[in-house]
Predict the structure of Beta-lactamase.
Amino acid sequence: MTLLALSALSACGTLSRLQVDPTDQQAQRLARSGDLQAEIDALAQPLIDSRHTPGIVIGVLDADGKKHFFGYGVTDQLTGSKPDGSTLFAVGSLSKGFVGDIAALLVQDGTLRWGDTLEQLLPAGSALSDDAKQITLLQLATHTSGLPRQPMTPQTLRYFIEYLFTGNSFYRHFDRRYLLDYLADFERPERLEPQYSNIGYGLLSHVLELHSGEKIDELLQARVAAPLGLSNTDYLAQHLPGYPQRARGHAGDQPKFIRRGQPVPDWQFTDILHGTAALYSNADDLLSYAAAHLYGSADAKMDAALQDTLQVRVKRQKEAAAVAWIADDLGAQTITYQVGLVAGYSSYLGLDSRHNTAVVVLQNSFNWDNDVGHTLLLRMAGALDMQRSASLPAIGQK
């Protein structure tokens, strides 16, 4: 049992387990037909038919900037309602993208600098190890600080074993005091390379609150959601109009000892981890968010900040590190994306900057193999490349 728990816990919230199928043949088919509906049906409907997930919503921003939404299955077993582009989902670690945006905006206006260290950012007298003192704002934002995903303590292990049977959050003891105390004895690894860290983003949120004088929820609304017109995106989900009709979370690959398809409890996050994974949103808002990164907004400072978050700081073929975003080079294409796994939900948001397309995939079950978004973006990219040299129907027009 202990080995099982440690193995599963080490993966929880992983950046990527995406397995993408060969796309040339499918891209050719899409290029010839332009039938986006048929392509998405073939990817999504089997997940419903096999009961892999109760429901799934796929949103596509095409190369002309138009939104398309495709819903399958149900929001929950009791109502039987079909999800659509306006259905709220918990999106887990997609929350980090918004925290990264807030950090970039505070850097843009001179409140913070990417090179600022925790020794400078936290109050004087904070108990910090020598290694913790040297962690920079940019390292927190790019998962390169050396901080672990979460401290692996006996209490964490006990809560995780409980989670496997109940679905209850195993992060509920990671409050502000707990994580700040952890920094007093922190020793970084010899090699600093991208290592996904939930507590790193918790500390980033804490720093943003300290230096802005506002809570992360307030910062989200004032600095990102309101300027971009995201009226259905909030860390305080109960405030959103669609919350009672939201998609309900279900067991999938996890929790291991709850039968797939059974409801699991929503997670409530502590003060310092609220900005890390507590966000609710819908496919419509997330495509608007993606469009702002691809096409820009009406605000020059906002656009500079959003582009800053997409800049790769650690180059690798797969999982190259930007601010909250990561990038994969897949053949001739580069996909920049985020994934979220929380409670009974899985989420994906991917951008193809060369073709100005985006895909969002929201599921109301916890599944590691969240590969539909990557696959679809690659097929669309291949089809668009083929259409440049032939007179073929535009994708999404049929």
Summary: Residues 1-16 have pLDDT under 50 and may be disordered.
